[in-house]
Amino acid sequence: MKKECLTIIGTAHVSQDSVDEVKQAIYEQEPDVVAIELDRGRYERLLEEKKGTKVDEKISVTKIIKEGKVGLFIISSILTYIQSKIGEDLDIKPGSEMIEAIEAANDLNIKIALIDRDINITLQRVLNKATFMEKLKFFYGAIVSLFTSDDEEIEDIEQLKESDTLDEIMEYFKDMSPNAYEVLVKERDAYLAKSILNIEDDHVIAVVGAGHKEGINYYLDNPQNIPPIESLVDIDKKGFPWLKIILATIPISFIVIFFLAFINGIDIQGNLIEFVLIGGGTAFIGSLLSGSKIQSAIVGFIVAPLTIIHPLLAAGWFSGLTEAKYRKVKQSDLANLAKAESLRDLWNNNIFRILLVALGTNLGVSVATLVILPSRVFIPLFFKVWGG
Fold first, then answer.
1. Containing H/E element for 207?
2. Would you say residue 329 has pLDDT above 80?
3. Sign of the CA dihedral 142, 148, 150, 152?
4. 195-215: buried (b, 16+ CB within 10 Å) or exposed (e) per residue?
5. Pairing of strands 204-209, 6-11
6. What's the whole-model pTM score?
């Protein structure tokens, strides 16, 4: 690729102007290669949508949970909702400029290069790098957006045409989640630049989100600063798991107090019963208040005492899995998140309901673990052990 023969078109994924600009540039220049900011998966999904193929396959929530991809799925769903909602308000389908680039390239028999990093790798790296507080703030901001009226913010939404929607969203969260911003924007700037440099043909038009254009140009001018590709696609967690260790100290302390009470001859049968009833009861109530089936609430009640003393398990996911057995999730549920205009719409969405049940069950157990059980069970036992 010759830098002097490269044209980078910065687009907004929900802008008709971007669609027109891309089409005009490709037909006027007739480049050797059209490079687009897509990975293989998103490229194929866009083609299927363009053909009008309706894919309504069932989503395996069980598989998502067992493979530890719940957070990945939630983030992906939230971003899909936000971007689709903006596109709906602007009457333009997200990704239309990419489809236009693909069609123009095919019409002129021009090669297409997919230059973006796999979206699953990107989102997994966000989960790995973001701190607990960053995740909390991000989800809070995203949830607030679900209940915010768009009518009063059309003018702000229109401004998104000037930049890549996803990057605009993360720019909004930049102060709250700098690590997520680093992964979604800065890392992808480097990855996109490296992919462009790897193109062997001379004349290239690159269609990317406007938020990436400046960063890509920087790396093209300073290729020595591009990190090794291996470091940009690695999804293994690094560092010492301080948070997990801290969270593990709570259930471990519960076990230690029970054990010390037992070896000191203190009758703990009543305390054990109270532990089970409080832990299971709060999970049961939390699940029901979240709108679960009675079966899901019962499962939450049964597993809650076990999950309280096991820091790597969460009662909510067991309730969620049970709920998923009765609420068959389809691709249309994910698509319909973009059409949700009221609490009723969200309430009727199977994905939202399953996640709500999981969240409600976990909140119930958290109340028991952090508030009720210490005051009702463990502090009294502690004083009995130490003669208080």
1. strand 204-209
2. no
3. negative
4. bbeebeeebbbbbbbbbbbeb
5. parallel
6. 0.66
